[in-house]
């Protein structure tokens, strides 16, 4: 049984590009101060950051929950948004539905979901068109290359 | 190569005065796409981008790069510079275009990350 060491829940406002990514930056500081190994830390914050950016770009609002245990980090991101009509397509590198505004911000080149997958040990996405999307990611803190 | 050498070679202006320019960089990630930076950066690279908004610095922080060079004469606003100072990420700006910067650094022995 893994012990839960920390749990934080953050509210995220959709469309607010100015503060987008702030929460992932906070998580980075928390994990760094706890002395988490740099490579694992990087994997966690890349997943969190891409998920946070997606939420801000596409959804009206949502939450990011960060759970630290003695063996892993779990990230749960839930939004009220448009949902993803074709998940398989969304995971293809280069596929994007981003607007020009999103691209001007440096995002929306079809690498967000692939990046999340690459950096997670487990990634599960539940989505319903017109309602929203939930992302569950688990990043192990042990035994990585 | 040290950051102060890069500054001289690429005719950069240092936007975050007081930063340590003796930092050594060997690898480079160059893109205007932030997910591309995140996909390839492993740690302590030099990041080259034409994107000057706050997301460029947030990405640099998440990716753990050592420094950022803004190319094509683009400059971030004061708030972005202050944010970079807070995150202790040196930022430099040059008028050179990304292609030329990459070519010069490649010839000096720096490598891309893939």
Strands, helices and their partners?
The complex is a heterodimer of chains A (145) and B (114).
Chain A: E1 4-13, H1 22-33, H2 38-58, E2 61-69, E3 72-80, H3 87-90, H4 100-104, H5 112-119, E4 122-128, E5 132-140
Antiparallel strand pairs in A: 1-2, 2-3, 3-5, 4-5
Helix pairs in contact in A: 1-2, 2-5
Chain B: H1 3-9, E1 13-14, E2 27-30, H2 34-40, E3 46-49, H3 54-63, E4 67-70, H4 78-86, E5 91-93, H5 98-107, E6 111-112
Parallel strand pairs in B: 2-3, 2-6, 3-4, 4-5
Antiparallel strand pairs in B: 1-5
Helix pairs in contact in B: 2-3
Please supply descriptive tags for the structure shown above.
heterodimer, A: 145 residues, alpha+beta, Heat Shock Protein 90, B: 114 residues, alpha/beta, Udp-n-acetylmuramoylalanyl-d-glutamate--2,6- Diaminopimelate Ligase, Chain: A, domain 1, six-stranded mixed β-sheet, 5 helices, globular
TL;DR of this structure?
The complex is a heterodimer of chains A (145) and B (114). By secondary structure, chain A is of the alpha+beta class. Helices cover 34% and strands 30% of the residues of chain A.
């Amino acid at each position: 049984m893994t012990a839960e060491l920390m749990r934080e829940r953050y509210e995220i406002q959709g469309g607010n590009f100015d503060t987008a990514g702030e929460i992932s930056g906070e998580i980075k500081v928390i994990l760094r101060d706890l002395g988490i190994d740099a490579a694992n830390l990087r994997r966690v914050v890349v997943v969190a950051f891409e998920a946070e950016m997606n939420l801000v770009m596409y959804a009206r609002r949502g939450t990011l929950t960060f759970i630290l245990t003695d063996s892993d980090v779990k990230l749960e991101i839930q939004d009220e948004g448009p949902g993803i009509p074709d998940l398989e397509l969304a995971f293809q590198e280069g596929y994007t539905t981003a607007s020009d505004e999103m691209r001007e911000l440096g995002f929306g080149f079809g690498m967000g979901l692939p990046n999340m997958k690459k950096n997670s040990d487990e990634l599960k996405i539940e989505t319903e068109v017109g309602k929203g999307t939930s992302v569950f990611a688990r990043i192990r803190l042990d035994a990585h290359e | 190569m040290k950051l102060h050498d890069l500054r001289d070679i690429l005719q950069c202006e240092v936007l975050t005065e007081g930063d340590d320019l003796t930092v050594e960089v060997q690898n480079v990630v160059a893109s205007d796409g932030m997910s591309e930076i995140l996909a390839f950066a492993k740690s302590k690279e030099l990041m080259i981008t034409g994107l000057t908004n706050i997301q460029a610095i947030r990405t640099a922080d998440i990716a753990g790069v050592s420094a950022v060079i803004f190319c094509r004469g683009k400059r971030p606003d004061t708030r972005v510079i202050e944010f970079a100072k807070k995150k202790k990420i040196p930022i430099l700006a040059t008028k050179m275009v990304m292609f030329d910067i990459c070519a010069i650094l490649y010839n000096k022995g720096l490598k891309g990350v893939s």
